[in-house]
Amino acid sequence: MSIWTRLAEIVSAVVAKGEGLIALFDRRGAPPEKSVAFTIAIVCLGAKMAKSDGQVNVAEVRAFRQVFQIAPEDEAAAARVFNLARQDVAGFDAYAERIARMFRRQPRMLEDILDGLFYVAVADGGYADEERAFLGRVAEIFGIPAAVFACIEARRTGDASRDPWQVLGLPRDADLAEARTRWRKLVRENHPDRLVARGLPRESVTLANARLAAINAAWEELSARLAHPAPSAAE
Q1: Nearest of 150, 173, 171 to residue 162 by alpha carbon
Q2: What is the value of pTM for the model shown?
Q3: Coil, strand or helix: which one is 16?
Q4: Which of 53, 145, 151, 214 has a 20 to 30 A CA-CA distance from 133?
């Protein structure tokens, strides 16, 4: 039984009792596995993230499906969970607060969840003010520092606006050796196997690969700049 079939069954039981999806976080022992907990978090916040700018478009739904690599036989179950989460009356902050408590001892998991929300937010090629406000509030509830938020934002908001220093989380005066050390550390930390070890489901490999691509692209640009610095105006 796939994660989506299990989720669909849980959601159907909750809806049958007239409860909101927020009840999934209030029940003792539910959700039972961290992979399910992570998926519910992304479903609930991802659906509301997609709706935050006033509309849910095909690109955002496609991005959601790409993150989890939903198999054809699971599409109906996944669509049901996503649609119910999108229509649920509970505010996104209620979900964010419960997720923050769920992973209070795992700050990296909270960063992973925020990263997944960014992936959905920019899938349509835009980054609306409403989406940034939504993500900023989620980061605040999660207790994610502003510098970490800026780092994740820089990785996700498009090639034209990416700042390699921000993507790698480096100060402007970092030299080539410091940049290389930081890049290698990020590559190790963000390898798909490491994310799975932190509790993310195997379906999130697309998210990990996209993150690594942004990190590697930033390193290529920054290493080229530091290896061959532009001459100063006085030279």
Answers
A1: 150
A2: 0.72
A3: helix
A4: 214
Over the stretch 38-86, which tens digit does the pLDDT of each residue have?
Answer: 667 667 777 777 677 666 667 777 777 766 666 777 777 777 777 777 7
Residue 77's contacts (CB-CB under 8 Å, 6 or more residues apart) are 2, 4, 5, 7, 8
Q: What is the pLDDT of residue 106?
A: 83
Q: How far apart are CA 114 and CA 129, in angstroms?
A: 16
Q: What's the sign of the alpha-carbon dihedral 105, 49, 208, 205?
A: positive
Token digits for 204?
Answer: 């999130």
C-alpha separations of 46 from 7, 56, 63, 86, 235 in Å: 15, 11, 10, 8, 51
Q: Which residue has the higher pLDDT, 1 or 87?
A: 87
Three-state secondary structure string covering 57-121 = CHHHHHHHHHHHCCCHHHHHHHHHHHHHHHHCCCCHHHHHHHHHHHCCCCHHHHHHHHHHHHHHH
Which amino acid, one-letter code, is at 104? R
CB 167 within 8 A of CB 214: yes
The full DSSP string for 178-219 is: HHHHHHHHHHHHTSHHHHHHTT--GGGHHHHHHHHHHHHHHH
Query: Tokens representing 183?
Result: 């890049």
- Which residues have C-beta within 8 Å of that of residue 30, sequence separation ≥ 6? 10, 24
